[in-house]
Amino acid sequence: MTAIDQRHDIQRPGSLAETAQLLRESTGTVLIRGGGTKLDWAGRVSDPDITLDTTGLAGVLTHNPGDMTASVLAGTTLAALQDHLADSGQWLALDPPSAGSGATLGGLLATGDSGPSRLRCGGLRDLVIGVTLILADGTVARSGGHVIKNVAGYDLGKLVYGSLGSLAMVAEVVVRLHPRPAASLTAAATADAKQATAAALALTASPLEPDAVEWVSGGPGEPGRLLVRFDGTQGSVEAAAVRSAALLADLGIDASPVEDAASEWQGHAAAVRGADDQTIIGVAGLPSGLAVLAERTFDSARRAGLEAHIVSSAALGIHTVALRGDSAAAHAQVLSALREHAATHQTNVLLRQRSAEVDALVEPLGPAPSTVALLRRIKAQFDPDGRWAPGRFAPWY
Length: 397
Hints:
The protein is an alpha+beta fold and 397 residues long. The protein is built from 13 helices and 18 strands.
């Protein structure tokens, strides 16, 4: 049993039973930490009494290759799970930019993080078919199971998806798997935001079914780079690449296969993660809104004297904005402009990374959504004493 010692605020239980007992026998606020890759997302958690390290809850509990399911403890890293599944020619169809940085399954579910493959396979919320949660009072709650068509009980996995550790601790997940692709082909093209938007809409409206459509902005006044990926058999991806090149050519976009696709996608992931000296902002909206968002972002950054870059899952409307520059006030100015844009363009803005100087000038969450009353009721039901992640969603609740 892990000792419960309030003098040392980091606790690393080794089982679900230990975790539940720790929560039953302790008091005070709790920060859940897995790989620690997204602790800055939204509001900063203020002085938790306990930091609950989930990395002691690691390992693949079951893997049924025939049913293409696996149950995994939440502290298991995504990289470790993928390595385990590779021998069976399977994978969890999830490729977030934090995959190589120690991101855990529980953390990925709690943050709602995903990657380019979300276009074809969905996010983790779509891949989880069962979940075990531990509530703040030590109660263990389960929903779903090991069968893909299991419809018993409430879907607690979707409830905690994106909750950032504010409702419960994810202890175990059951996921559905996909065959590991035999081949993959990535094509790239020079494209500005308007062209990328047109390409994304055309590709997703076609029967080609790309596995990823991403856009990375260029430097000031320069077009960006469009990436289109197809996974499958060697024959299918080559045929899809030819057909997609013809479709893009009709839009005035010249696409060709990338020789070193692995390096291309590693660079893409690094751009989404951002550097330590950047403010990173997540923006989610309609796929058709990329061009307008890019124009607003670059114009606001130019007026503020900042360098701005955008990485966009163009076909999904999920974007990452990275800002670089010395003035904290300038960063706050651009964030404010993006929030004003969000209020009139059906988008959501999430502050992911910023300096302490920027933190002092901005609200981490911005205006409360129209659903805030419902969010508060859910929080009160699952965490009536407010133990989990104090400040994460302040001032909403």
